[in-house]
Model the fold of this input.
Amino acid sequence: MENTSIVYMTVGSKAEAVAIGNELVSHRLAACVNIIDQMNSIYHWDGELQYDTEVVMIAKTTSSKVPELVEIVKANHSSECPCIVSIPTTGGNPAFLEWVANEVKK
Done:
């Protein structure tokens, strides 16, 4: 079975998250995308401290789909430097990991 990855992303709005999530799942780049609304972020950007509300997206996919997934997110994202981080999984429920692999290879 192919290795799975969890991809953590942030976007500016729930509508943007839904649009990107639909793109990823409908094109079989992710088996599932979770959307967590109203996350508060503090960071530096352009030399100034920023306080924002963002939306978290967590995609479950296979490691081989990550490069294409990243490109699709970047192409559809409103930020010039979007947060997209892939985290390889090292274990979990074998039945779930198999489901993820089967969903993205269809």
Notes: The helical segments are 14-26, 66-76, 94-105. The first strand starts at residue 4 and ends at 11. The chain has one domain: 4-105. The chain is about 35% helix and 40% strand.
